[in-house]
TrEMBL record:
Any Gene Ontology CC annotation: cytosol
Swiss-Prot/TrEMBL keywords: Hydrolase
Record domain Thioesterase: where: 52-127
InterPro entries: HotDog_dom_sf, PAAI_dom, Thioestr_dom
PANTHER family to which the protein is assigned, alphabetical: 1,4-DIHYDROXY-2-NAPHTHOYL-COA THIOESTERASE 1 (PTHR43240), BLR7284 PROTEIN (PTHR43240:SF7)
Entry superkingdom: Bacteria
Native species: Pseudomonas taeanensis MS-3
Name used for this protein in its record: Thioesterase
MF annotations from Gene Ontology: 1,4-dihydroxy-2-naphthoyl-CoA thioesterase activity
């Protein structure tokens, strides 16, 4: 799959997720090696007003979404793949007033389970603020009634 198609697919999937729109999450980059999303810093996602540190739930959402969309970019056709397990190890808090980036790659695809891994960072990917490992269940190509989402992601509009 071409980088352009992967990027378009990632942007379409992200645009269908209302909670990601509210958080302002955007596709920063997408290619066969993985996906990077950006969570812009804003006061409404601060977990501690005294320090200005982003709430861990916003970072968890960023990383779950990044891992999930990395699957959409890796599979030849769209499949609904809900999260089975997501583990995030926080290395240190995010710095206030800085965007957070999430990178994820899909490193193993089996007939039933897809495995992903990645990290969250701010200025330097070599200094991650968190590591993530996620597993996702393959449900096949049928969305079992969610045709609008399927059309949006495949490019047919809602």
């Amino acid at each position: 799959m071409s980088e352009t198609l992967i990027l378009e697919r990632a942007q379409r999937f992200l645009s269908a997720l209302r909670h990601c729109q509210v958080l302002g999450i955007q596709v920063h980059g997408a290619d066969p090696q993985g996906l990077t999303l950006r969570l812009p810093y804003s006061p409404h996602i601060v977990g501690n007003p005294q320090t200005g540190v982003i709430h861990g739930g916003a970072i968890t959402t960023l990383m779950d979404t990044t891992c999930g969309i990395s699957i959409v970019c890796a599979l030849p056709e769209f499949e609904m793949c809900p999260t089975l397990d997501l583990r995030i190890d926080y290395m240190h808090p995010a710095e206030p007033d800085k965007d957070v980036y999430g990178f994820a790659e899909c490193y193993r695809v089996t007939p039933n389970i897809i495995f992903t891994r990645g990290y969250a960072y701010q200025s330097d990917p070599q200094q991650p603020i968190a590591h993530v490992v996620g597993t996702f269940m393959r449900m096949g190509k049928s969305l079992q009634g969610n045709r609008e989402l399927q059309r949006t992601i495949q490019g047919g509009g809602a």
